[in-house]
Amino acid sequence: AGEGSGAVPGDGTDPPAPERVLFPPTFSVSEIKNKQRRHFMFLRWKQQQRKEKLALKKKRRKEREALGDKAPPKAIPKTIENQRVFDETTVDPNDEEVAFDEATDEFAPYFNRQTVPKILITTSDRPRGRTVRFCEQLATVIPNSHVYYRRGLALKRIIPQCIARDFTDLIVINEDRKIPNGLVLSHLPEGPTAHFRMSSVRLRKEIKRKGKEPTEHVPEVILNNFTTRLGHSIGRMFAALFPHNPQFIGRQVATFHNQRDYIFFRFHRYIFKSEKKVGIQELGPRFTLKLRSLQKGTFDSKFGEYEWIHKRREMDTSRRKFHL
User: Fold this and answer.
1) CB 198 within 8 Å of CB 134
2) Has residue 3 got a pLDDT over 60?
């Protein structure tokens, strides 16, 4: 441009500078005051998130198909379970010391098939209807179990009577505000005794798509993720409740699944749809247990010697530390 054609800087004839555009800060759904509008916008945001996730998943699948055998291995997602802190008490199935303990512990007569389980199921004093129905349904799951009501008797008086009548285990269902909230499992005649906190109890009528009433066949027992010495002992306690020889003709299976120290109980029936496809049908009841203590010997709240007690402030410092 010529020297005289442009405006001289600083002489007041400069063209006006463009205004700066100020974008608003990151928008948050929580800032919306109207509750219905906020809920609607949140659902739209979740829907958009799902679409983006699905699109990314399809893109990665196409890339893997295009690469074929040269595709990199799939990344293993990080979970609390696979990041678990190593526990020095983890049981090695080939350990000679573990094998010796199993051959000499309180459950050895059961696993050697010298004793047949006989279970007494009772409740806290003056149980309500929901606890009574839960005990009755639990008795249909565990073969050779009998339900008796406390009638004010203390456990210290009940245990000698159970031993005299050849009961091998005692189960006590406690309740609070008409809801079952605790389970005491005592192996007779020499213990040990485990105290569990019970939650998420669902009776048969509360389970959707449930199957017909369970039969009298002895169910198969599945124990999952009981890997430490403590978990091994708890798993053997549960196994000792059921007869050693399952009757697979009944197609029933009782599962105790340990995940993050919560023990989930489910009772299913196998449904064979074809020679290759097998489905499961839940029969109920279902519940969740959390171990609170393991005591040597039979139940003794005052003078009992405890092998393990759950101390929340000391033991729950890490989410990746499990005890079972």
Assistant:
1) no
2) no
Listed in sequence order, the residues at least 6 apart from 15 whose beta carbon sits closer than 8 Å to its beta carbon are: 7
Range of the domain at 146: 92-316
In a domain, 72, yes or no: no
58 and 186: one domain? Answer: no
Distance CA 179, CA 201 (A): 8
Domain-embedded: residue 260: yes
18 in any annotated domain: no
Same domain, 200 and 286: yes
Distance of CA 145 to the CA centre of its chain: 25
Q: What is the pTM (predicted TM-score) of this model?
A: 0.78
Task: Indicate whether 9 belongs to any domain.
Answer: no
Distance CA 196, CA 166 (A): 24
Asked whether residue 187 falls in the same domain as residue 237, the answer is: yes
pLDDT band at 26 (very low <50, low <70, confident <90, very high): low
State pLDDT tens for residues 145-166. Answer: 999 988 888 888 899 999 999 9
| 59 and 178 belong to one structural domain | no
| H helix or E strand, kind and range, residue 20 | none
pLDDT on residue 14 = 61
Domains in the chain, number:
2
**Six-digit token string for 202:** 């669902």
Residues ≥6 apart with Cβ < 8 Å to 28: none
Q: Dump the DSSP string for 174-213.
A: EEETTEEEEEEEEETTT--EEEEEEEEEE-GGGSTT--SP
Q: How far apart are CA 24 and CA 27, in angstroms?
A: 8
- Interacting residues of 230 by C-beta distance below 8 A, sequence separation 6+: 89, 291, 294, 307, 308, 323, 324
pLDDT, mean of residues 276-282: 88
